[in-house]
Write a structure and sequence with these properties.
Layout lengths: L4 E5 L3 H12 L3 E5 L7 H6 L7 E2 L3 H6 L5 H10 L2 H10 L4 E3 L4 E4 L5 H13 L3 E3 L3 E5 L5 E4 L5 E4 L3 E4 L15 H7 L4 E7 L3 E2 L4 H7 L3 E9 L2 E9 L3 E3 L1 H5 L1 H11 L2 E6 L6 H8 L8 H8 L4 H9 L7 H9 L1 E5 L1 E2 L7 E6 L16 E3 L13 H22 L2 H12 L1
Parallel strand pairs: 1-2, 1-10, 2-6, 10-20
Antiparallel strand pairs: 3-5, 4-5, 7-8, 8-9, 11-19, 12-15, 12-18, 13-14, 13-16, 14-15, 16-17
Helix pairs in contact: 1-15, 4-15, 11-14
Bound molecules: flavin-adenine dinucleotide.
Length: about 425
């Protein structure tokens, strides 16, 4: 194999893993990123415990990608959750499976992993160029990189992988501005929408002031026919947290369609309505409603106040139990891209072939969250980012080795 000069644009997990794979195959890799340092979103992901992947059976794992599952499945089969764990361990970071089946590095953080990873990339000869913004392609097909001075340089590479991320948390680097650039190029890009985001609920002032920041643990949330157990955190403007994120795609669709959505909160999912009715039918013996609910139904102060957010608390034991098991909350909107964990939308699947190469730009591959897929939290986002980074690298390696490159470049120049 002849080593070639290749570029990876975007130093998030998809781009870095792609660069590692390309350099491991002997190519000369330069990574570009618009930010002053790499992998800022990956580091942010490590703040709340870096959930690398999930240990559930693969068939179930793949269902979390919804409509994109058939397109992502071959890439995830080629780079499985266990491969991601082994890779992490090869960098000195042991992993473990949490009680929910989620996989984390033992340190829970991204920073030690990233430090070891960057050392490995440097040892492989990978160059990292920061503060370099991808600005598109010129009319001869050269890649344009813009430096902070605003100067644009046209660069030639034997192959390019774009791993520019989605559009959530833009201040961490992935601002989705590449979408306009590629759209101008004629590429179909599905509009970005927030995914795994908080939802808006009109709390009363008292509830907001008292409970913003308080977690409601071991609850279940239902949207339509889907119920998810987990945790939600009260925010100034509504709810966020794992259980909310798991339903976020459906909530977003309902809000787009109807302007509102109804969420049912089960504050005691481990008790049947009947058992709960038995508990709350005991005499109150002069206790206040709060004390009674705390003792009889083991509800936290936040859960008790949440019950009141749903209207008058029923006194009849059966109605009270039903309310505790299915408290309706009206969602008035969803939080925006600026604080969403991830985004839906991105490069349309019909624009890439089964090696993730852009059909209309041979030699240019796409990886990571910039492709049009979404998934709940649980490790599915990083797994798909790594797997597509790996697939794009393998695609580019094959492209460079089969001589496609020469044929394609001849074809492009013949049509110009
Ligand atoms: C708070 C938070 C917590 C999270 N926790 C988890 C978790 O525990 N588990 C999980 O699976 N996922 C988690 N995620 C999501 C996960 O971090 C992302 O899905 C993942 O980082 C996407 O990887 P990527 O490489 O595709 O894109 P990114 O990580 O977004 O990287 C894209 C890179 O491209 C660069 N870039 C963008 N545009 C340009 C341009 N024009 N020119 C040059 N460079 C450019 C950006 O600066 C960035 O460095 C979390 C996200 C957030 C915000």
């Amino acid at each position: 194999m002849k080593p070639e000069r290749v570029a990876v644009v975007g130093a998030g997990p998809a781009g870095l893993f792609c660069a590692e794979t390309l350099a491991g195959a002997g190519h000369h890799v330069t990574i570009f990123d618009r930010m002053p340092s790499p992998a800022r979103k990956f580091l942010m992901a490590g703040r709340g415990g870096l959930n690398l992947t999930h240990s559930e059976p693969l068939e179930r794992f793949l269902t979390h990608y919804g409509e994109a599952s058939p397109r992502l499945a071959p890439f995830i089969r080629a780079f499985m959750p266990d491969d991601l764990r082994s890779w992490c361990e090869s960098l000195g970071e042991e992993t473990f499976v949490g009680t929910s089946g989620r996989v984390f590095p033992k340190s829970m953080k991204a920073s030690p992993l990233l430090r070891a990873w960057l050392r490995r990339l440097a040892a492989l000869g990978v160059r990292l160029e920061t503060r370099q913004r991808f600005a598109g392609f010129d009319e001869t097909g050269l890649m344009l990189m813009e430096s902070p001075s605003g100067a644009c340089e046209a660069m030639s590479f034997a192959g390019i992988v774009l791993a520019l991320g989605g559009a959530s948390w833009p201040r961490l680097g992935s601002d989705g501005a590449w979408s306009d650039i590629l759209c101008r190029d004629g590429l179909a890009v599905a509009p970005f929408k927030p995914s795994n985001m908080g939802v808006k609920i009109d709390w009363t002032q008292t509830f907001r002031e008292r409970f913003a920041g308080t977690p409601l643990k071991r609850i279940a949330l239902t949207l339509g026919k889907r119920t998810v157990r987990g945790e939600a955190v009260v925010t100034e403007t509504g709810f966020e947290g794992g259980a909310v994120y798991a339903l976020s795609a459906g909530i977003r669709v309902a809000i787009e369609r109807d302007g509102k959505a109804e969420l049912l909160v089960d504050l005691r999912p481990d008790l049947s309505e009947e058992a709960l009715a038995g508990r709350v039918s005991k005499p109150r013996q002069g206790q206040s409603t709060s004390t009674f609910l705390r003792k009889a139904a083991s509800l936290s102060p936040a859960a008790i106040s949440l019950l009141r957010e749903g209207g008058d608390v029923p006194t009849d034991a059966r109605f009270l139990a039903r309310r505790i098991k299915a408290l309706p909350l009206r969602i008035t909107g969803v939080q925006g891209l600026d604080r969403a964990i991830s985004s839906a939308g991105g490069v349309a699947w019909e624009e890439v072939d089964d090696r993730l190469m852009l059909r209309r730009r041979p030699g240019v591959f796409v990886a990571g969250e910039m492709l049009d897929w979404e998934a709940p939290t649980g490790g599915y986002l990083l797994q798909a980012s790594f797997a597509t980074g790996y697939a794009a690298a393998q695609g580019l390696i094959a492209y460079l080795s089969t001589g496609d490159q020469a044929q394609v470049s001849e074809a492009i120049h013949a049509t110009r």
